[in-house]
């Protein structure tokens, strides 16, 4: 039974409220609180005269504006965030003493920032890239940051290579091109010399790099961490976030078009979901490995280029996170939030993964430049909800007014305060791992197999996923001007899988390199988004349907579909040649949400055309309507056309109509057609196709 007193999910929001400025019914003032009479003209010596230095309002306003920008994050610059809460399912104190995982009545406030990695702050959302998934838990014992990605492995094995990796993938320094893309010589030159990156490269070339929604991707802590329980027993853990909905991706052609039509696609999607109450939810899980089993795997648990197949060590679900509130101010919250993998609470500890160790230095350090000094923990979004007392003092923008005369420890003058807390009473104590070794700059032998898991990933994918991955390889390497780089990368691909190497080589004009691919490898169903479990989680809930109409549309057919969509939680937008009220054949009207000028089928999950003589006459000759339909078809999206709308289709893409069933409905690979029959039956058949999402079996689709 939940204890309502323990609902602290709003604690962070309440605290933020003290810092929120509400301008409703307020008067304009300077920063000093002086009320302003006039702000449209500067103070001048006569209406056409010179501006006077005396104008403090002009100077203050200009000074502030001139310094509005702060450096963007060196990576993960583009992001979007949301507030929410986390609650564990039961008491997991046998695994960890972390308070948020021991008390199921506790709702811990969270702030989550999703991001792309490579692009600048204003870059498009839908580029091929890793996605960041960083969560700040404001726990009663302090802040815990789980700074994760949507892929379970990483490019490099040691933090010291991170600056090289990032320099190689960012736009080339002489002309700063290309933006937010790995498809250039520098990146692939680096990769061709870094075989350890091959597993991650498979993930980056896969559809996982093109998420349909931040709410429909997984998150992974990547490194092996430790859980420490109340008795001090340690276990290795890998953190996972599993969305409660299915994991879904866009297709490459679509992502490129979206980047132009709506560069804020994923940001808007997250924002709109929360605004309409369709809250993104993720379960936090862990793969647990007992200390004595550390060496039971054919890879090293400390190697961040490897994953533990979920079939070998299942993900134990610990609790659920719900994102239910959009930030009030992008800069104050989303931009100023500062994550750090070293922000941990008792019960969570590190391992010697050399990538993690590099991160433990980097994240604090980078905030000094980005947020202007050492006091960033005092920025409202970064403050813990529990009290902070220590002897750190001063620095730029210090907010706290520390009282007392003795900011040092030990002291007698302040009676020893602030006091230390013993481990058993909530103080953090590092796990006493036994360490022995010589000081060396060396990579462990156990880190040296770079191809087996790359092959496992590739061979675990479905046919369409593998096809997409090969096309991605053709695109990326096709953008590489130097043929030697292409050849070197393909030599690595040949060690992974012959079909892969052949497929990519064919597209980039390089002979298929000889190379012995790794032999038979085990596969892991969890790696494919087309596995049975994920497919069964798909539904129409939250899918965005474009209903294309014009004057004279069949209003009965449209209404039936809208009713069915509403029942299943799908969102319908009306697209018409113009905004305003559009009159249907039966006399009712529908308000257009978007026009061909403001939207495109790439921004929807499914396409519907209700027909109606007048409407089809208008639409069938419209280039934009044809483009809408053709892209929805090529991107394997559910499509439904009714009545005379089929005449338009005959013109756009003839030969689709097969033999109808008893209800007059033809359904093939997600294309649902009905010349005559009951409109509710068409609506049901369409919504079923929407619930399945993409229909890869379609001819010419997802090329
Ligand atoms: Fe990061 N990373 N990273 N990273 N990372 C940053 O921190 C870094 C790595 C991740 O929304 C930076 O505050 C190093 C792995 C996310 O604010 C920086 C290494 C994973 C975010 C930094 C890595 C991540 C960052 C840039 C290798 C997945 C966005 C600004 C040793 C487990 C957080 C900042 C947000 C951000 C360094 C590798 C995830 C420079 C040195 C592996 C989600 O400190």
What share of residues is helical? 25-40%
Assign the structural class, choosing from mainly alpha, mainly beta, alpha/beta, alpha+beta, or little secondary structure: alpha+beta
Distinct ligand kinds: CIS-heme D hydroxychlorin gamma-spirolactone 17R, 18S
Q: How many H/I helices?
A: 19
The count of DSSP E runs of length 2 or more, i.e. the number of strands, is: 19
Low-confidence stretches: none
Q: What is the first-to-last residue Cα distance?
A: 53 Å
Give an account of the 3D structure:
With 703 residues, the chain is an alpha+beta fold. Helix content is 28%, strand content 16%. The protein is built from 19 helices and 19 strands. The strands form 3 sheets. Strands 1, 2, 3, 4, 5, 6, 7, 8, 9 and 10 form a 10-stranded antiparallel sheet that branches. The protein has a 7-stranded mixed sheet with strand order 15-12-11-16-17-19-18, sandwiched between helices. The chain has a two-stranded antiparallel ribbon with strand order 13-14. Strand 13 and strand 14 form a beta hairpin. Helix 3 runs antiparallel to helix 4. The longest helix has 17 residues, at 354-370. The two termini are 53 Å apart. The mean pLDDT is 96. Bound molecules: CIS-heme D hydroxychlorin gamma-spirolactone 17R, 18S. CIS-heme D hydroxychlorin gamma-spirolactone 17R, 18S binds at residues 73-76, 79, 113, 115, 132, 134, 147-149, 154, 159, 162, 221-222, 338-339, 355, 358-359, 362-363, 366.
SSE layout:
Layout: H1 11-17, H2 56-66, E1 79-88, E2 108-116, E3 131-139, E4 142-149, H3 162-169, H4 185-192, H5 198-205, E5 219-220, E6 225-228, E7 234-243, H6 252-261, H7 265-275, E8 281-290, E9 316-325, H8 330-335, E10 348-349, H9 354-370, H10 452-460, H11 463-478, H12 483-496, H13 498-508, H14 532-537, E11 544-548, H15 555-567, E12 571-576, E13 580-583, E14 589-592, E15 594-595, E16 606-609, H16 613-620, H17 623-634, E17 639-642, H18 645-652, E18 665-668, E19 671-674, H19 679-692
Parallel strand pairs: 11-12, 11-16, 12-15, 16-17, 17-19
Antiparallel strand pairs: 1-2, 1-9, 2-3, 3-4, 5-7, 6-7, 6-10, 7-8, 8-9, 13-14, 18-19
Helix pairs in contact: 3-4, 4-12, 5-10, 11-13, 12-13, 15-19, 16-18
The structure holds CIS-heme D hydroxychlorin gamma-spirolactone 17R, 18S (HDE).
């Amino acid at each position: 039974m939940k204890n309502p007193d323990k609902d602290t999910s709003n604690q962070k929001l309440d605290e933020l409220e003290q810092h929120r400025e509400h301008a409703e019914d307020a008067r304009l003032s300077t920063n000093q609180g002086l009320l302003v009479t006039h702000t449209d003209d500067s103070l001048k010596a006569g209406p056409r005269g010179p501006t006077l230095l005396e104008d403090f309002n002009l100077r203050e306003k200009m000074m502030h504006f001139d310094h509005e920008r702060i450096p963007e994050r060196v990576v993960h610059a583009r992001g979007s965030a949301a507030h929410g809460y986390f609650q564990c399912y039961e008491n997991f104190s046998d695994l960890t003493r972390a308070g948020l995982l021991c008390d199921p009545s506790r709702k811990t406030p969270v702030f989550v920032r999703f991001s792309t990695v490579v692009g600048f702050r204003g870059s498009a959302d839908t580029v091929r890239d890793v996605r960041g998934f960083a969560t700040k838990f404001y726990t009663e014992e302090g802040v815990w940051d789980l700074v994760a990605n949507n892929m379970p492995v990483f490019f490099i094995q040691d933090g010291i290579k991170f600056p090289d990796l990032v320099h190689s993938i960012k736009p080339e320094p002489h002309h700063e091109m290309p933006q937010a893309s790995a498809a250039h010589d520098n990146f692939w030159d680096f990769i061709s010399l870094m075989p350890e990156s091959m597993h991650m490269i498979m993930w980056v070339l896969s559809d996982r790099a093109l998420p349909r929604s931040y709410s429909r991707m997984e998150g992974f802590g990547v490194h092996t961490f430790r859980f420490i329980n109340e008795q001090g027993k340690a276990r290795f853990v890998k953190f996972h976030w599993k969305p409660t909905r299915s994991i879904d991706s866009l297709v490459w052609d679509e992502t490129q078009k979206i980047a132009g039509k709506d560069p804020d696609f994923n940001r808007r999607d997250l924002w709109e979901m929360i605004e309409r109450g369709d809250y993104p939810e993720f379960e936090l899980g862990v793969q647990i490995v007992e200390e004595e089993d550390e060496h039971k795997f054919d890879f090293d648990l400390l190697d961040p280029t490897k994953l533990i197949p979920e079939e070998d060590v299942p993900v134990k679900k610990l609790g659920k996170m719900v994102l239910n509130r959009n930030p009030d101010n992008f800069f104050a919250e989303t931009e100023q939030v500062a994550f750090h993998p070293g922000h941990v609470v008792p019960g969570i500890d590190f391992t010697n993964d050399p990538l993690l160790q590099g991160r433990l230095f980097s994240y604090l350090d980078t905030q000094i430049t980005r947020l202007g000094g050492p006091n960033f923990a005092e920025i409202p979004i970064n403050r813990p909800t529990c009290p902070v007392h220590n002897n750190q003092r001063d620095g730029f923008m210090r907010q706290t007014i520390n009282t007392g005369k003795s900011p040092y420890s030990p002291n007698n003058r302040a009676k020893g305060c602030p006091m230390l807390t013993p481990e058993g009473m909530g103080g953090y104590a590092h796990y006493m791992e036994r360490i022995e070794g010589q000081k060396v700059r060396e990579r462990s032998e156990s880190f040296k197999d770079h191809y087996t898991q790359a092959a496992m990933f590739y061979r675990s994918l479905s046919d369409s996923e593998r096809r997409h991955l090969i096309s991605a390889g053709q695109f990326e390497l096709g953008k590489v001007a130097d043929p030697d780089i292409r050849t070197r990368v393909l030599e690595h691909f040949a060690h992974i899988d012959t079909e892969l190497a052949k497929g990519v080589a064919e597209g980039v004009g390089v002979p298929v390199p000889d190379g012995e691919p790794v032999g038979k490898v085990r596969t892991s169903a969890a790696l494919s988004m087309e596995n049975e479990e994920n497919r069964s989680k798909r539904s129409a809930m939250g899918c965005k349907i474009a209903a294309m109409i014009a004057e004279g549309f069949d209003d009965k057919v449209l209404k039936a579909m809208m009713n069915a969509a509403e029942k299943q939680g799908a969102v319908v937008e009306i697209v018409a040649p113009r905004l305003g009220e559009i009159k249907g054949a039966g006399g009712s009207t529908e308000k257009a949400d978007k026009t061909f000028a403001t939207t495109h089928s790439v921004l929807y999950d499914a396409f519907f055309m209700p027909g109606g003589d007048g409407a089809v006459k208008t639409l069938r000759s419209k280039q934009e309507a044809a483009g809408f339909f053709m892209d929805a078809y090529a991107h394997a999206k559910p499509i439904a056309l009714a009545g005379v709308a089929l005449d338009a289709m005959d013109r756009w893409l003839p030969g689709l109509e097969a033999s109808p069933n008893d209800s007059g409905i033809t359904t093939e690979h997600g294309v649902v057609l009905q010349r005559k029959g009951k409109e509710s039956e068409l609506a049901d058949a369409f919504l079923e196709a929407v619930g399945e999402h993409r229909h890869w079996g379609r001819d010419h689709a997802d090329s």
